[in-house]
Amino acid sequence: MTALGAAAQPPLPIGRRRRFLPKPKETGKSFLFTFIVVIVLATFLSPILRSVFVSLKTPEQVGQLDAPQYPAVLQTFDYQGKTYDVYDVPIEGGLKPLALVKKGRESSQFVDPSNAAAGLITWQGSWRSLDRSWTFSPEWSNYATVWDQIDYPRLLFNTAALALIGMVGTILSCTLVAYGFARFRFPGRGLLFTILIATIFLPYAVTIIPTYTFFLKLGWVGTWLPLLVPTFFANAYDVFLLRQYLLTIPREMDEAASIDGAGPVRTLVSVIVPQAWPAIIAVAIFHVVYAWNDFLAPLIYLSTKPELQPLAVGLAHFNTLHYRNQAFIQAGTLMTMIIPVLIFLVFQRFFTRGIVISGVEK
Amino acid sequence: MAAIGVQPLEALDRRAGGRRFFRRPSLGRSALARHEAKWGLIFLAPWIFGFFAFTLIPIIASLIFSLTNLSLEQTQPLRFVGLDNFVRMLGDHTTWDSLAVTFRFAAFNLPIAIVVPFVVALVLNSRYLRGTGLFRTLFFLPYVIPFVSGVLAWQGMLNLETGWVNEFLRMIGVQNPPNWLQDTTLIYPSLAFIGLWGIGAGVIVNLAGLKGIPTELYDAARIDGAGWWASLRNVTLPMMSPVIFYSLILGIVDVLQYFLVPLVLYNGTGEPGGSTLFFNLLLYKQAFNFQNYAYGATLAWLLFAITLAITLIVFRTSRRWVYYAGER
Amino acid sequence: MTARLFRPGVLLATFALVATACGGSNAPPSPSGAASSPSAVAREASVGPATVPPGGPVEIRWYCCLGGGEAPEQKAVEDKVVADFNAAHPNIHLTFEVVTYDQANGQLATELQSGNPPDIVGPVGIGGANAFHGKWLDLAPLIQKTNYDLSGFPSNVVDIYKLDEGQVGIPFAIYPSALFYRKGLFEEANLDEPPHKYGDKYTLDGQPLDWNYDTIRQVAKRLTVDKNNKDATQGGFDPKNIRQWGLELQRDDLRGLGAYFGSGSLVAADGKTAQIPNDWAAGWKFYYQSIWTDHISLTGPQFESKDINPEDYPFFAGNVAMSENFLWSTYGVGKLDDWDLAAVPSFNGRVTAAFNADTFRILKTTKHPDEAFEVLQYLLGDAAPDLLKAYGGFPARTAEQAAGIEALQSQFKNQVDWQVAVDGIQYADNPNFEAPMPAYNESLGLVGSGGKYLTEFGNKPGLDMDTEINKLRSDLQAIFDKAS
Question: Which percentage of chain A shows pLDDT scores above 90?
Fold first, then answer.
């Protein structure tokens, strides 16, 4: 392996999608490599598979100790107005599906679904040692139930609005501030940078009450403002990330632009931002995911306004003291994930494109 | 502000930025500097305003709280108690025990939290990998899962009786698989493993960094006959050092403030055997569960001081190993 | 009072002024937030409820869910109660704030401390309210003023809410304890069902035995079955592959677990010495033996496994034969069609059935105590039947219990012997196991839900229980000492 970095490919003209097609002799290597990644991923993602399985189970399956992991239903038989589970009973020289009507420790009574009129059949042995026939059967309606019960569309709208407005604020403010820190020299800059980073050293738990009080005095409690307005004033995490990235961008280009008469704002827009796309996209993704899953802040500020709450808060109604339907909880969680994953799918293409552009401009 | 008076971080981080922006020779040196300073402050203005508007007041309030006997129950009249809370904190062995727990876990987890996302980003950036977009998304997937759900999912996976991990171990013939989350020797590996589920953020940061490395550098290295390892050492690592530096600083802050996973798993009791009574967990419980606001704030300021001290040291070392291409 | 002037709200308002006005301005030390002392605000009782007061209706905020009430089905009922109330009371605008149980405590603390508290809180249990000891309004003056009738309640239930803070609550829902069991599992094992009447004997193998914890242990072993259908009394029983457990104790809280063996308190009469009641120690040992020696109860990891115990209590999933629990746990048994209630066994010749009670309380900080009390009366009166049904609550008013039983029964296919629960009221623990103790929330970290010792007992075989119980007492003492 000569270079693990994909960036080792020569730059391609704009408009041509970059495809990594290894030379024929490398195909074997490529498949092996991909295969190993698949194995690692399968382990890494197995809890999600488990959660998909659980989300599709019926309440009857959950808590059955001999039930399979995948969503399945039992064969049952209605006999004299009651429903009984069907077991495979070794009787008359073969396995026969019989409904277990009366359980006993040493012997139990069954009825033959194909011949119910014949009445009860007594079988000597332990019914717990018998197999039951589970058949794969996903309960898709769990998702519909969750959708209906928590007013999913409204919550989704709130979440998306909060995430996207905040994303715009974060990108705008953090890019400006990071540019200021990375490219300009002025007295007190070091101290300001120290203060910026130090704002994340104080744990959140102790500033909750003063922050809440402050927003209460502003009259912002019960609105989106405490969640949105601060995003337009930059945060340490993203400024630090962008600053680090901007500092890796060689200066020749800003300098060329400034010789051409471009001011700082034009340099930022036409030189720095195109170079910094991967980092800006990363910040955008971080903010969307953060806002999507943020629970405590929306809860605190919107507890009196259910109509303004995002998904994370709405879903918590399923994780409650007296209501723990495993299938619903998992279905709700998975439904929450879909949009951020789609956003990532779209954004991660920009990752590649941003690089192609910057590669060409060099 | 406690930050005032300490040596500015950036003074230590000397190579960082800071070159003059304007090169117009017609302007005098001081006029030029003034011009540059003006623009710098203009770009910083959003943060500076936000800092005074939203951040400073709560910070000062928490500092004042630490000098009072403020609590929700308030059995005694509220008053200033001077440094009583700090004396109590320094004299309480729980403080030191929980700091020890935090540092023990940090020593174990910090390298993992920095190296693994870097390696995964390298893999996802490899030209030997087919279907990169899909794999990126899949590695990213768990990061999207709400935090508490993710922790609970792993609690299920690691359950002694019915977790898939132990089911698998039994399948391959392990008679008595371990109780992962209740065993003092396995608890840190288990927590580190759970932590890897949030790897998506670190992978993205590293991926963005890798994408920013100019391709000519690799071409040049190849022409010089450099192999994979030499390219990694001489091109990738130096070019990635600003990103690694960022991961390191945030990794330190994160691990010093680590508490959510054990809070979810053990309700903050520090089980098994006190091995998860992290300092920030102690703090969270005091400030949020027991509503001892004054004492919680006191603990928070100790953590602030410790974090600041460690960060300063790391910034001091950074000039030796962090390379900024934007500087010559 | 200096304490009142120096509220953080005022403090911060001052900061805010100083900071936003760029310093200099003398923030007036006006105790604006402080003037809200409810006793000081001597408001006239709004006589005619059908008139809108000048300045629009009074806003009253109802805060939920320190102890349940946030489930979607429950919320639908609560929303309707609020709408109905507002339609009938133009003088008051009632709003409903739902915060889920996990976060409810922290959120209420934040609102209280920041000067944005609600007016009415509930439903809340005795323990949930203890976390906010000192914050509740003494209702006695309002009860007197409105001639509210307390005679319909059992007096021992009214007295639960008589604390050092005053009469902080009026009974609403009560939850006596009973032994939940599944008839089908007794039938399969060829065992008699447990007695429904307190004092009745239990016949095991033809022997009439007192219904006590020794007897229930014998029965529970017969009802603990492995995958080969061998029970825990038989040779070859495989404790690693249990398919059905005989007995679950109430394991949310070590105090509650103990309270089924006898009444007691972790704090001595002096209010600062930690103690472990002997009956509770015996109960915890019984519990520990049930898990690790007899295998009749689930281990900690089994209890935590969502595959074995998907819905709070293992009895709900059907794999447990008998389970001590409060009547509120009827919310989870609907899937079973053969469950019933039986008597809680006696310990040392005495029956104690741990007791839970929920109600709505008014916070001291309310600016409108009269209107809040009007809402409270509505919740405890006109809205009570709907709310009680939604919460699975048993009406505290003796006269309404028959209707309450009917409402509960209507949710189940099988006929349940509710009289067992009614009889259980007279065996309620006194003092209540949730009674206040110093540093309530912190102490709960040792014995409460997910608490240190509760977790340890369920997860560690081979403990010496006497040593552990002594350690618990000294840990508690350390917390009590710090609090005083």
Answer: 32
Cβ of residue C228 closer than 8 Å to a chain A Cβ? yes
Give the architecture (CATH level 2) of C39-175+357-396: 3-Layer(aba) Sandwich (3.40)
Look at residues C451, C452, C284, C469 and name the one whose alpha carbon lies nearest to residue B273: C452
The minimal CB distance from C305 to the residues B64, B75, B162 is found for B162
Give me the torsion for CA of C476, C432, C245, C306, rounded to 10°.
Answer: -70
- As given in the structure block, the two tokens for residue A78 are 């209605």
What is the token pair recorded at C19?
């900071």
List all residues of chain C from 99 to 128 with a beta carbon under 8 Å from chain B: 105-106, 109, 112-113
**One domain, residues A128 and A148:** no
The span from the CA of A297 to the CA of A314, in Å, is 13
Q: What pLDDT score does C53 carry?
A: 64
Q: How far is CA C214 from CA B313, C181, C286, in A?
A: 65, 17, 10
| Contact yes or no for C261/C213 (Cβ under 8 A) | yes
Per-residue pLDDT of chain B (328 residues), as tens digits, is: 333 333 444 444 434 444 444 444 444 568 888 888 999 999 999 999 999 989 999 999 999 999 999 988 787 888 899 999 999 999 999 999 999 999 999 999 999 999 999 999 998 888 788 888 888 888 888 998 888 888 888 998 999 988 999 999 999 998 889 989 888 899 999 999 899 888 888 998 998 888 888 888 888 888 888 888 999 998 899 989 999 999 999 999 999 999 989 988 888 888 888 899 999 999 999 888 888 899 999 999 999 999 999 999 999 898 888 888 766 3
- Beta-strand pair A72-74/A134-136: antiparallel
Assign domain C177-354+431-483 to its CATH superfamily. Answer: Periplasmic binding protein-like II (3.40.190.10)
Task: Phi first, then psi: give them for residue C276, nearest 5 degrees.
Answer: -115, 115
Residue A133 burial by Cβ neighbours in a 10 Å radius (0-12, 13-18, 19+): middle
Tell me the two tokens of residue C456. Answer: 């340890």
- Chain A contact for C225 (CB, 8 A cutoff): yes
Closest CA to C227 of A127, A107, A249, A83: A127
ipTM: 0.87
Instruction: Test C134 with B268 for CB contact under 8 angstroms.
Output: no
Residues C475 and C445: beta-carbon distance below 8 Å: no
Cα-flanking dihedrals φ and ψ of residue B26, to 5°? -65, -30
| Long-range contacts (CB closer than 8 Å, 24 or more residues apart) made by B216-219 | B216/A362, B218/A3, B218/A5, B218/A7, B218/A8, B219/A8, B219/A10
Same domain? For A216 and A309 the reply is yes
pTM of the predicted structure, to 2 decimals? 0.84
Residue type, C139: L
Percent of residues, chain A, with pLDDT higher than 70: 87
Long-range contacts of B11-15 (CB under 8 A, 24+ apart): B11/A190, B12/B312, B12/B315, B12/B316, B12/B318, B12/B319, B13/B315, B13/B318, B13/B319, B13/B322, B14/B319, B15/B319, B15/B322, B15/B323, B15/B324, B15/B327
Do the domains C39-175+357-396 and C177-354+431-483 sit in the same CATH topology, yes or no? yes
Element (H, E) at B293: helix B293-321
Residues of C in contact with A62 (CB under 8 A): 306-307, 310-311, 317
Map out the domains of chain C as residue ranges. 39-175+357-396, 177-354+431-483
Four-residue CA torsion sign, C460, C464, C470, C474: negative
From A278, A280, A180, A297, select the one nearest A229 (Cα to Cα): A297
Euclidean distance between CA atoms B16 and B328, whole angstroms: 10
Residue A321 contacts C where some CB pair is shorter than 8 Å: yes
Quick count: other Cβ atoms within 10 Å of Cβ B174?
A: 11
* Residues B313, A203 contacting (CB under 8 angstroms): no
**Pairwise CB contact (< 8 Å): A322 & C332:** yes
Task: Give chain A's mean pLDDT.
Answer: 83
